[in-house]
Inverse folding.
């Protein structure tokens, strides 16, 4: 079974956050959702768990950071083409997010843009042509 990732994100308005992630292409999974959390599926292996602040506090004693004023993590999801990168960021902006809060990555072998969701969580969307990418020694060669 492939490894899966579940990213938990505290949100201030669960309905708004759920609608935002649906607008950018994630599917809502009712099996793992309730009035305190929405499970958003990007792929068979990538899930975002949107949680109310009260629910998020059940998992950590640390204060919840305000993602609009600070960053603890930068998230990035792959795209199959340059056009898909633009599509996702355009959908994010149309759904109430902020397009391109960070600089674009623009190379022959890679193209990336970013967006912030309505709570300020920053996501990158990147397309990468592995065959055209510069060849670097692998970590195993070091």
């Amino acid at each position: 079974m492939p490894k899966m990732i579940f990213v938990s994100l505290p949100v201030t308005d669960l309905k708004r956050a759920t609608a935002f992630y649906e607008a950018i292409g994630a599917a809502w999974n009712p099996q793992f959702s309730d009035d305190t959390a929405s499970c958003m599926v990007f792929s068979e292996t990538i899930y975002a768990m949107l949680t109310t602040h009260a629910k998020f506090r059940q998992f950590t004693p640390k204060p919840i950071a305000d993602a609009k004023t600070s960053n603890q993590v930068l998230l990035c999801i792959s795209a199959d083409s340059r056009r898909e990168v633009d599509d996702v960021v355009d959908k994010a902006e149309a759904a109430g997010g902020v397009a391109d809060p960070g600089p674009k990555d623009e190379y022959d072998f890679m193209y990336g843009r970013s967006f912030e969701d309505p709570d300020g969580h920053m996501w990158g969307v990147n397309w990468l042509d592995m065959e055209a990418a510069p060849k670097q020694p692998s970590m195993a060669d070091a």
Summary: The two ends are 29 Å apart (CA to CA). Helices lie at 14-23, 53-57, 82-94.
